[in-house]
Amino acid sequence: MDFTSLCTVVAVVGILSNKSQFFLHDSATLSCVDNKNSSDWRIKRNTTNIKNNECSSTWGKRSGSNCLIDAVYLFDSGQYWCESGTGACSEVINVTVTDGPVILESPALPVAEGEAVILRCIHNKASSFNLTQFYKDGLLIGNSSAGTVTIRDVSRSDEGLYKCNITGAGESPESWLSVRGSKPDSFRFHPTNLFLPVVAICLLFASAMLLYHWRNLKAKVDDDVSYTDVTFPQKVLPKTNAEIPSEPTLYSTIKPGAC
Hints:
Elements lengths: L7 E8 L5 E3 L4 E6 L8 E6 L5 E2 L6 E3 L2 E4 L8 E6 L4 E3 L2 E6 L3 E4 L5 E2 L4 E7 L8 E5 L2 E6 L3 E4 L8 E7 L3 E2 L3 E3 L1 E2 L10 H34 L35
Parallel strand pairs: 1-9, 2-10, 12-20
Antiparallel strand pairs: 1-3, 3-7, 4-5, 4-8, 6-7, 8-10, 11-13, 13-16, 14-15, 14-17, 17-18, 17-19
């Protein structure tokens, strides 16, 4: 049963150097952090032998919200989390202690989508080693002569069990890489989120100003033009002979010898 379903997750449990695998007799420091910087946190764990066991002198040293383990043993492998007296808690991280010669350094805490994850293969005796192979869910994903591999722009598909093998030295235990969804873009700040609205407002303002000046100019031109009523006479066509009234013709009779 997932005990975190019984409490409210409001804190984060962290491990110094953020790794989940340790060599035998390594030291480990765990701490609890919340947004109020409260010290009312206790670190607990589930191991093979004991469940819901609080950090105490039997396996660690408590200092505020921290727990220091001077030397880890195989029985320290298990689940660790933070818990408060009010029922709040953190998510669980898995810790693995090995007596083998090789460990895989990978994030103990979930990583966000889009981040870069570095996996590092470490030998407990040598700082330099031979070719290293990295595996995810049992499948080879890469080789490195430097002992590291980087997963760029991590996504949910990168979740899984990872391990490494150093040629001629040995293989590490497996560790689970957890990937969380990134925050929605509405919660991210991008320069374009601010730039685009400003440009839109400027264009709108410029359009309004141009329309205002155009209307003023049109009104001014209309005021400068004067109009006069002009009556155009109807065009008169010349009359024909048929249309001119004729004067009456007088006739007289001239007698011969009258002159």
